[in-house]
Amino acid sequence: MNTExxxxxxxxxxxxxxxxWRLSRKEHLRDINDYEELDGYAGLKKAITMKPAExxxxxxxxxxxxxxxxxxxxxxKWSLMAPNDGGPRYLICNSDEMEPGTxxxxxxxxxxxxxxxEGMLIAAYTLEATHGYxxxxxxxxxxxxxxxxxxxQARAKGYLGENILDTGWNFExxxxxxxxxxxxxxxxxxxxxxxxxxxxxxxxPPFPQVAGAWGRPTIVNNxxxxxxxxxxxxxxxxxxxxxxxxxxxxxxxxxxGASGKVKFPGLWELPxxxxxxxxxxxxxxxxxxxxxxxxxxxxxxxxxxxPADTIDLPMDAETIMKAGSxxxxxxxxxxxxxxxxxxxxxxxxxFFARESCGWCTPCRDGLPxxxxxxxxxxxxxxxxxxxxxxxxxxxxxxxxxxxxxxxPGAMEPLMGALKHFRSEFEAKATDRPVAQTSxxxxx
Length: 443
Hints:
Number of strands: 9
Strand order of the largest sheet: 6-5-9-7-8
Cofactor: [4Fe-4S] cluster; FMN
CATH superfamily of the largest domain: NADH-ubiquinone oxidoreductase 51kDa subunit
Domain NADH-ubiquinone oxidoreductase 51kDa subunit iron-sulphur binding: 342-387
Largest sheet: 5 strands, mixed
Helix content: 40-55%
Protein name: NADH-quinone oxidoreductase subunit F
Structural class: alpha/beta
CATH class of the largest domain: Alpha Beta
GO molecular function, one term: 4 iron, 4 sulfur cluster binding
Number of helices: 17
Catalytic activity: a quinone + NADH + 5 H(+)(in) = a quinol + NAD(+) + 4 H(+)(out)
């Protein structure tokens, strides 16, 4: 196991660590001159020598997948944007990042703000966007500050505003701080919030690519997705696909992370297909002394718990899905053998219940029911029937039963915990005589 923290940027090679290699040269690249000295905005300058359709072909050939959790190919998403009719066209960066256990976008925003701006400029040029917004969670105060300063520097250099780099292309980009709702991670709820409305998801179709912000064509992508674009334009899609070193069908690198009772919680840029064992033991230094891994979440709070004996699985979308979970954001959360799974799940479900927008009944009422049942079990006041009710909720709050993916996401850690650690739930229930009334029935 690793005995000291490893840097996020590996050996600092731009050929192998396109997202973070610059951090091996400087602690941060907030100054535009420092960024330009290290190939900054070179990808944009190459993009504007091409036609927008040609840039789109490059992105599609690289098979850049969304890095916010869904993993939908960005090039396909972009190709679905409505044709340019001369009106406003919007580009939005989803930097809400309120998924518990996820903090990768914060690092990119705070230390490499120009890399995000360059990536968004490449996307905006490709999509013929007229306006862009970086929608960032309100708690990311420092990140918003550095992004705003970077935007001012970019404007002064001619990368933003009117007639960008003498191309005749106009584009403006703004930072918009959100009001602090997890549901804004869903793109249509984010758009509603950006417009000044209540952050509820919208019915789809129409999709944002056709009718998004203010009823106009809109593309929404994650921070890390945009950060990939400058290097892809410089080095090409074949290079990008090769970054996964044959470990995975998913191309490129990914910012992996680990939190919980590991020795060195943090972030590392690694090829897709890196095993969970490598992330936990080699990069995070293994579990803290005297502790043993019991379970882990592959990619944030809205993924299914997996048992410790699965940590040799490659961390890519297909493999983790076959194992019964989702890759999500690739930020692992570990649970050690001293922790109670009932308590761990209850903690997560309280968050999801609080963050429900309340738009649909299954989510609005079902999640608090789950919390009440879990609390009852945790406090020795539940019974076996409550465990069965929890199992039923994972079906009643699943995909197709709710308006958006919030409740199904909330059910994933509960599903994984019941699948692999049901005995812990039942042991809690048997502490109370079966004859007593179910807590859920009382609710």
